[in-house]
Amino acid sequence: MRLRIDQLDKHLERPLAPVYVLGGDEPLQIQEARDAIRAAALEQGFDERVMLSAETGFDWGTLRSYADSLSLFGDKRIIDLRLVSGKPGDAGARALKDYAANPPQDNLLIVSMDKFDRGSAATQWYKALEGAGASIRTWPVDAHSMVGWIRRRAGRRGLTISAAAAQALGERVEGNLLACAQEIDKLHMLHGEAQLDLEDVLRSVADSARFDVFALADAALAGDAARSIRVLHGLREEGVAPPLVAWALTRELRSVSRMAGDLAGGAGLDQVMAKHRVWDKRRGLVSSALRRHPAAVWLDILRQAARTDRITKGGAPGNPWDALEGLALAMGGMMFGLGKPYNPLS
User: What secondary structure does DSSP assign to 59-79, as a single string?
Assistant: First the structure.
């Protein structure tokens, strides 16, 4: 069965298919389709999840072993399989065809690919998965459809955006759905559930040449103290609300803290990156951050973020911008903006 991305929500209201295969040129839509399937599966009693990242050297017997074994607690299981290269190789193709021929009742297999070409859809393994369950392919949202996509997504966040405002936002992000989703999140953070016109959006959405909160988060993760301070000062001069800055830094901190915890638990770096859906172009940035601090230190900085958030909202004494600077520098390996290496024992 083949589904369009806009048919998925309605489909998930019914009992799930045993297999889903996701591929296309829009990673954000693939990620969100996968999340929606997993959420529906949880509601339908699939309480256990196994994440497999099929990279070079992956043992395809692992898939077979999960297919043949019962869940540890007798629960129904989600097998979340990521094809990192988009191609499973000969051994993987055989394993996927074998699985599709007789999918276990108590397993739900989700196969997803961020790299996908039309040739993949013609392979026997892909056709076998599609025949055993459902396939979803995503394609770039063209300029004609972008306004509708923005207004629907904003509506799910409680925002009503005029057509002119949506058009301006689409032009600002140039069809980049991930960037557009981030801008809608920022609008919701600033305005809550509201009706926004063109003037509201132009006032709230920073031009790409100006400093923004995501540039600050990236500079902090990279350990670039000078750029972190420069961007932070730019945000302050532009009148950006301190709680929005705290939100952006805390958002990255939560993600990195979870990844650091998985690494501390024995997971491999590539497996962690796949599990937490780190985009290819951000892997170097995130890897450097994970090497900078162990899990315990990231948790300590996350607690500092909670204090900073209270300060920015007036719930604790202190200067919001000083607190934000200390937080950004701590993420980058410095303590309290004083130029000292961050040391949780000091």
Answer: -THHHHHHHHSPPTTS-EEEE
Any domain includes 346: no
Q: In sequence order, what are the beta bridge partners of 160?
A: 195
Residue 56, Cβ density class (10 Å: 0-12 exposed, 13-18 middle, ≥19 buried): exposed
- Condensed to tens digits (0 to 9), the pLDDT of residues 37-49 reads 999 999 888 888 8
Task: Indicate whether 45 belongs to any domain.
Answer: yes
Domain count within the chain:
3
Quick check: 336 pLDDT over 60?
no
| pLDDT tens-digit series, residues 232-272 | 988 888 788 898 899 889 989 999 999 999 999 988 888 88
77 closest CA partner among 18, 1, 23: 18
Q: Tell me, yes or no, whether 291 lies in a domain.
A: yes
Quote the domain boundaries for residue 47.
Answer: 2-138
Tokens in use for 315?
């719930």
Do 133 and 103 meet the contact criterion of CB atoms below 8 Å apart? yes
pLDDT at 339 over 50: no
SS3 labels along 23-45? EECCHHHHHHHHHHHHHHHHHCC
On whether both 11 and 84 belong to a single domain, the answer is yes
